[in-house]
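1st attempt posting a full record on here, be nice pls
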Amino acid sequence: MLNIYERQTNIIKVRDWFKNQRKRERERQRQRQKKDERRGSIGSSSSRMINDNSKDKNNPDEKINGTFRPLNVPAFLFCSSTSIDTFSKQSNPIPFLYPNRSTLSQLLKQCPTLNQLNQTHAQVITQAFSQDSSLIAALIRSYISTENLYYAHFLFDHYPCPSPPILLCNLMIRAYSKIPSSRESLHLFHRMLVLNAPKAAVPDNYTFTFVITSCSHQNLTVYGENIHGQVIKSGFESDIFVGNSLVNMYSVFVKMDESQKLFDEMLHRDVFTWTSLLGGYIKLGEMGTAGELFSKMPERNDVSWAVMIAGYVSGGRYTAALSCFHDMLCDDKVKPNETVLVCVLSACAHIGALDQGKWIHAYIDRTRFRKSSNISTALIDMYAKCGRISCATQVFNAASDRNVLTWTSMITGLSIHGLGKDALKVFSQMVDEGLKPNNVTLVGVLNGCSHSGLVDEALLTFQNLENLWGISPTIEHYGCLIDLLGRAGRLEQAFEIAKHMPMKPDVVLWRALLSACRVHGDVGLGEQITDHIAQLDHISNNGGHVLLSNLYASLGQWESVAGVRKLMSERGKKETSPGFSWIEVNGIVHEFRIDDQLHPQIVEIHSKLREMLRRAAIEGGYVANVKKVSFDLLEEDKEQAVSWHSEKLAIAFGLMRTEAGSPPIRIVKNLRTCEDCHSAIKVISRVYGREIIVRDRSRFHTFKEGSCSCKDYW
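the predicted structure (as tokens):
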């Protein structure tokens, strides 16, 4: 791409060439006339000059579409099949050789491509139309439409009139307002205010709307607050478009008092006003207020529904998100957009709602909704997290538009199913196709190695992060590596890596290593790790003391357990969140927590649970594992404590509500499955002849005929 100076230099050369060419053409005509006069055939010669369409042997010019083009002149200055003809068909192509103002104006109205626009711009300069304000305005609009803001800004700065009209100012401000973190809209607005010229443009309601939109993309609210003052000063506070922009701007910065005040003072509101305020409350985390506001909306569009459903998903209220989606389907005025479908598929993935996820997939196929890469990625994630990795693989193989996120979703899905070797194979295919992995991709690969015990492969992948893919290891990558070594029993090596990391280990990483110490019974190293946890923020490290307490309890060191519990009490430590389990039966998701008493059928569930554990003990030899009970209780009380875990309650409910031979019982749990539950579910799967799939915090466990897919390595 030539810069402005080079283009102007070339234009001067071309202009000089034109002058010389015209002189040569006049000289050739005089020579022909002299020859004709000598032959006495001036009339026939004149006729021959008009009618002859063949090339003159002495004329080196090339003839295109009836117009001569000098061979040494760039083709873009003349009519050709790839430039002028594509704009419009002219009965007489000769005007394009020396186009006039009307011709150039017509060309710019045809929505030219960037290449064609550059050609037209060159003609404007060569034909001395650079001071024609209407043509320059048309060029600016065309450059904005092709997203070439550099040339648009250059022409705007050199506008021939004293100042550009308000329409052009608004177009420029709007174009820059769409660019995140760009302050050029603010600079252009300031230029309008300080420009002291005759007929200078004065900001109108559209100007303020676009400038406020740009302010919502900045890091500070001070810009928007200043513009708000200008709005009041100019008297545009009652304009609905300006008001909507202000409500949205304050909502983006979660200044809900100001946003609500503006909302209440607006005389007229539309769906954008309501949706902007709704998004602010959701961003603040006030889902109750957001729900009330949503129910009062007089009109809802697909964006309103998408904002509400996405808010439920981001807040962890997945069943509410699905319920909101069902309400949307009952509204005949709107249809789900891509954002809505991706969000509800994510909700299904989080709680393992396979039936509802399959229905959404069927809805996508039935309505012939375009399967973009986002939709395909969400479907792969949903099926993988609902325990149907085969369906996830089918969606992946059928996807026509696969980007890095699609590949990453497939790799992560295989990893949480303990299929580390398959994850490595897919990763190799991704690299072979020329796609560069990102941080999340490699976290998925390392997790797959961790759940499959592929220590050597994980170490090699970690070493190649920077060498092959130019990715500096993050704390997530180190966390995967340390978790891998901890699971494999290489605790000292993991501890050394944690101490010499280039960044400071966080509490999550230390907890993973402390959990490995609990599994392998290494009290000494566990105490050292607890000292490191204690040096971190006291608010965020409560889980470390719980893990250390559990480690002491597993070894029967009850005095140490009491000491840790006392320390936690003195420091105001809160217990970790209780365990939750979800099970979907007949399209309805049921939630259970440890020792649950809230479910409507809890009496029948407790009865079924006692029967289930009794059969597991008599027919399968199950014995409760009470080593991990963290309180010094009687043996009978310990057995009672582990029997009420949330996943056991969910399985009992599943056996109670489904028949033998039914599809697998699917459980989703928010914590890691304990050793006792893992042993019990293996026996239950054999005694009842049922396949039970449990997804805990880290991976999938498929229990069938008394064994688990993790091979007791989790």
